[in-house]
Amino acid sequence: MALKEQGKDLKQTDASEKKKVKKVQTDNDVKRKAVKLVIAHLKRKLPENGFTVKEQLTDWINGMEELLAKEEFVMAEYIEMRRNLNDIIERTFDEELRF
Question: Which residues contact 46 (CB under 8 A, 6 or more apart)?
Fold first, then answer.
């Protein structure tokens, strides 16, 4: 009986140790996740019918997804992509899509 109790205690400590080990999120992980959320939002918001900047916007989304696929996080590349997105938004005449 004492062996069973020791086994239970051992299992409980193993389980509690596994729960304590959490992945520490870095700033880059958080930024990458934020970019993924922006892309998901843009994909949901895009209308099905054609509009003037649809091709440019889909190209931007594809470029950003390629950038996210890279292992390293280079902030300068993300800033450049954000500038490109702002340029696309400025050229968009559809008020509903802009906001």
Answer: 54, 57, 58, 97
Quick check: is 15 in a domain?
A: no
For residue 8, being part of any structural domain is answered with no
Give the whole-angstrom CA distance, residue 50 versus residue 23.
42
Residue 32 domain flag: yes
Number of domains observed in the structure of the chain: 1
Asked if 44 contacts 55 with a C-beta cutoff of 8 angstroms, the reply is: no
Task: Answer yes or no: is 7 within a domain.
Answer: no
pLDDT in tens, 7-46: 555 555 555 555 667 778 888 888 888 888 888 888 887 7
The lowest-confidence range among 28-32, 44-48, 60-64, 72-76 is 44-48
